[in-house]
Amino acid sequence: MLSRREFLNFSAATIALTSLPNEIQSNQLIRNYKLTASITPHLFDKKGVSDNLWLYNKQTPGPIIEAKENDVLRVEFVNNLHVATTIHWHGIKNINKMDGVPYLTQDPIQPGESFLYEFPVKNAGTFWYHAHVETWKQISKGLYGPLVVKNQVDYNQAKNQNLYI
Ligand SMILES: [Cu+2]
Questions:
Q1: In this model, does residue 163 exceed pLDDT 70?
Q2: How remote is the CA of residue 62 from the centroid of ligand 1, in Å?
């Protein structure tokens, strides 16, 4: 028979499991990131040329997001812009509802709102993420960043096996 403590642990684990999307298994490593979009003054050169860019985490390009294939990416996104936006994970074979296409796979994320993107990354490669509301405008304002999914084979391990020589 389960003790009360065991039962509570068991319940918590079950709840955690059932809150994950169907496509995600409990043994996958979760990579947590937080992205905040905001208007950010940016100095382009020493002559003082500057403009207000729209950036993720006040960086241009946005922060590098890294994972290994078969990990789960969990990106908590906060929209501090004055306009609605979404994030598209370019090149990722994604779960449809996490694909970031406004009006098609999700509602646009309004100013002041947040959205949790959570999806498995199944294929290694070098990708990028970018805004997907008025894409032509929001990308040119600065809303993009690199996304790197590494192969499961660790580089050092591969070296030992002479795969990279
Ligand atoms: Cu794209």
A1: no
A2: 15
Q: Could you tell me which of 104, 68, 72 has the C-alpha nearest to residue 86?
A: 104
Give pLDDT, residue 27.
76
We report the CATH number of the domain holding residue 97 as 2.60.40.420
* Neighbouring residues of 58: CB distance < 8 A, sequence distance ≥ 6: 38, 40
What separation in Å is there between the alpha carbon of 88 and the centre of ligand 1? 6
Type of residue numbered 20 = L
Q: Could you list the residue range(s) of the whole structural domain that residue 70 is in?
A: 27-160
Residue 17 lies in a domain: no
Pairing of the two strands 125-131 and 144-150: antiparallel
Query: Is 50 exceeded by the pLDDT of residue 34?
Result: yes
Q: How many domains does the chain have?
A: 1
Residues with CB in 5 Å of ion ligand 1:
90
CA 148 to ligand 1 center in whole angstroms: 15
Q: Indicate the pTM of the whole model.
A: 0.79
In-domain check, residue 4:
no
Question: Any idea which of 8-12, 114-118, 121-125 has the lowest mean pLDDT?
Answer: 8-12
What is the CA(17)–ligand 1 centre distance, in A?
A: 31
Domain-embedded: residue 118: yes
Structural domain includes residue 15: no
- Quick check: 90 and 114 in contact, CB under 8 A? no
